[in-house]
């Protein structure tokens, strides 16, 4: 299997569009757990007046309630794809792992 072109061209060819922005907000709650050496970490922050979950998929941060975190708000729309008859439009919140503020 060969790949040619950029990821952006591939997304456009499949009718996908997206955008992202980096935001900052204080942590309202922290959810974390461990099983052996495996960790899960997520933070609750307020985004546009609504509480949302900001995932740390790499589980490398250690913020606490009240700390200010930076995170990506990433939107994705798959215009040529439908799931159960509905267009796919999703927003995802991800921690910026190299957050300089604590």
Approximate shape: globular
Portion in strands: over 45%
Stretches with pLDDT under 50, minimum 5 residues: 1-5
Structural class label: mainly beta
Share of residues in helices:
under 10%
Sheet with most strands: strand arrangement: 1-5-6
Could you spell the SSE succession in H and E letters?
Answer: HEEEEEE
Average pLDDT level: 84
Main sheet record: 3 strands, antiparallel
Distance between the termini: 44 Å
What is the overall number of helices?
Answer: 1
Summary, kept brief:
This protein has one helix and six strands. It has one helix at 7-13, and strands at residues 16-26, 29-35, 38-47, 50-56, 68-83, 86-95.
What does this structure look like?
With 102 residues, the protein is mostly beta strands. 7% of the residues lie in helices and 60% in strands. It contains one helix and six strands; from the N terminus they run H-E-E-E-E-E-E. It has one helix at residues 7-13, and strands at residues 16-26, 29-35, 38-47, 50-56, 68-83, 86-95. The longest helix has 7 residues, at 7-13. The model is unreliable at 1-5 (pLDDT under 50).
